[in-house]
Design a protein that fits this description.
heterodimer, A: 165 residues, mainly beta, 8-stranded antiparallel β-barrel, 5% helix, B: alpha+beta, Rossmann fold, Dna Ligase, domain 1, 8-stranded antiparallel sheet, 5-stranded parallel sheet
Chain lengths: 165, 500
Amino acid sequence: MNLQIEIDGESRQVQIDPAESAGRWIVRVDGEMVEADARLLRPGVLSLLLGGRSHRVVLDGDPSAPALYLGNQRIPCRVEDPRSLRSRRHSGADGPVVLKASMPGRVVRLLVEKGQDVAARQGIVVIEAMKMQNELKTPRGGRVIDLRATPGAAVASGETLAVIE
Amino acid sequence: MIRRILIANRGEIALRVLRACRELDIVPIAVYSDADRAALHVLEADEAYRLGPAPASESYLCGDLILDVARRARADAIHPGYGFLSENADFAQACEQAGVKFIGPPASAMRMLGSKTRARQAADRAGMPRTPGSVHGLASLDEARSVAASIGYPVMLKAAAGGGGKGMRAVSREEDLSSAFDAGRSEAQRAFGSSEVYLEKLIEQPRHIEIQILADEHGHCVSLGERECSVQRRHQKVIEESPSAVVDQDLRRKIGEAAVSLALAAGYTNAGTVEFLLDKNRNFYFLEMNTRLQVEHPVTELVTGLDLVQLQIHIAQGEPLPLTQSDVTLRGHAMECRVYAEDPDNGFLPSPGRITRLLQPGGPGIREDCGIYEGWVVPMDYDPMLSKLIAFAPTRELAIARLRRALDEYVIGGIRTNLGLFRRILRDREFCAARIDTGYLDHLLGGQPAPSVDGLDSVPAIAAAVLEALQPAASAATASSVNAWKAAARREATGADPRL
């Protein structure tokens, strides 16, 4: 199986095939071959033996920001879908600004109205979580063409709150 | 005799009090908001009663609701924990009137020490050193100017009712005083409902040193050594330890005696903490008194061998202190990390949500006070503290090594935490050499960021590939998580990401 895996922003080509004995795998990372002995201890928790070195790997399980824990280190990690790569290349810097919630929380208030013209760095919406308020600003100026946030409503991290064109 | 205690709090401190109750054969009674129905303190308590909706103002801050539960549940006493109603003199008084023992100081002592200007007056009466400056609220900008001129710049403008750094401004030049005065007053009015501000001399590069005291209801008071809490971010403590590397026996005795004299002068009882700033020449200045149990009380428990919560309950029952000052000895070194649900890589924004994985550390010298479990959803409505990881060892160096080891065993998945920040601090040369002051952490965070993925080479890629390959054999939980990576990748790629 061939995979493209992004580790902390860096893309790696990985080929993985089962070895002859159970629980063992032949893995090639960017062409370099390793034999891995892997046991899934419970969902999301993996014991990995690589040439005698023991690693405990824990899948973060946060769907909005995939990552692995290796020891105590959190490593952003994403198994790439080739289609997503293509579409990413097409998303330029000229399109509309999609303002997303930077953290899960509750919408405290809206600072603009739909249809309003806004300047770069202008505050659009205020979110609150854990006693901390966070004002989301638009990086570029334009017109607010969509405003999906409602005061009092809960929002998930990464949820679209407003679109500015 | 206290037989039933209502714990008017949540999270790790509710669990901490609950455990003390169990050990004393007292029935622990929990209260909860709608956001906390499945919280650990509710699951562990003998009895649990609903207060109201999620917002603290409609649940944990509602003294009337809590007293009503206390009556219905026949509680003899209320332990307020920290935060919420713990320093609310009106609530303490209402408990007194309702015939329920408030486990803490009397309302009169809370009133005297709760206002920073009144606490400064009490410090003067107790003959205790404090920062130069005013002991009353400033009536006008002119008065502010003349106070600042007499003590000399830089000065600190503070809210008398303040806490958590709100209403606080450092002013280094006279021309900035006017705007700081106006802004500080309006911020204080908004945050605390009082615009009273005062000025004090700014102590440069101070260390935060605080003294734990215990006072019974018979006029006895002891100090239990110091804690150093100089590692702070936005005036919030991040790491605490006891003893301090710069406090020797002689200084400990002097600061301890000052703290005890303040408590006795204020008619204080139960557990309390007197906070000081220590300047470069090891002069100490009274800062404020916290009239409750502190978050960081475990480090004192470990080095003194005492159980502060049990002692609080004994004191509230009217028992005399079981020890005198000469019985207090400090042994070893304890250090605590406050683990928060916040994202150090994203401006320390809060990170509530479901804890999908939890692997907790253990072994020699490790104590973890926490209120979380795997599968629990950390609510967005309260403080982001998840747990306190505390190490105890014979020396500071060994305590740091022990904490580092425990942090490597600790995994909290699904949400972001500041565990990685502790890993960085505990490997920092300045911290390890105890060269710290209250500006230390800002300085560290302003410097070179920690190396991201070092010396791991291809291990993460191998791990990710194996997890992907095991997907069909793995349980549904793994499969859906792995699929979720793809879904997330797709979502991010198709939505135009403005990279805010």
